[in-house]
Write a structure and sequence with these properties.
Elements lengths: L1 E10 L5 E9 L8 E10 L2 E12 H5 L5 H8 L17 E8 L15 E13 L2 E12 L5 E4 L1
Antiparallel strand pairs: 1-2, 2-5, 3-4, 3-6, 6-7, 7-8
């Protein structure tokens, strides 16, 4: 699904980190695929699964109203000018990301998630429960007030 994701995290200013790099989507995303996630917390030197779920169809999940600001702020930092809100399918493509600083990711974190220095989140596309096609892994630190302070 996703290949050659090469995002580097760098300090933009005293308080902000940004991601720069390239990503390549090698298969189109449409409603025949499902979007899923798993969240792990570091415990005893190992990441332990805290929760996860295979959600509904990929386009329906990506274009939920609650995701609009997050996706729009991401795509405005890329050269993917052919993307627009609600577009489905999303054809395979290569994009360059420049100075992406997520400001709304914390809005998607449930209140019961404890603040911790070491989290791993897998976002993936699947055809069904047993056939995961690929995705991305994000490592993050959360303050106890649940705002993202570092990622990469």
């Amino acid at each position: 699904m996703l290949e050659n994701i090469n995002l580097r995290i760098k300090k933009f200013n005293r308080t902000t980190y940004v991601a720069d790099g390239m990503l390549r989507l090698k298969r189109k995303i449409d409603n025949s695929l499902r979007l899923g996630f798993k969240a792990y917390n570091m415990n005893g030197g190992q990441y332990k699964l805290m929760f996860g779920r295979l959600l509904g169809s990929a386009c329906d999940q990506l274009y939920e109203d609650s995701m609009r600001i997050t996706l729009e702020e991401f795509f405005v930092t890329t050269n993917l000018t052919q993307w627009s809100w609600g577009m489905c399918p999303i054809e395979g493509t290569t994009g360059v990301v420049k100075n992406y600083a997520p400001t709304t990711i914390g809005d998607h974190i449930p209140a019961y998630v404890p603040g911790s220095e070491k989290w791993k989140v897998e976002l993936y596309f699947a055809e069904n429960e047993s056939n995961i096609l690929g995705g991305v892994i994000v490592y993050a630190s959360l303050r106890t007030n649940l705002s993202l302070i570092n990622y990469g």
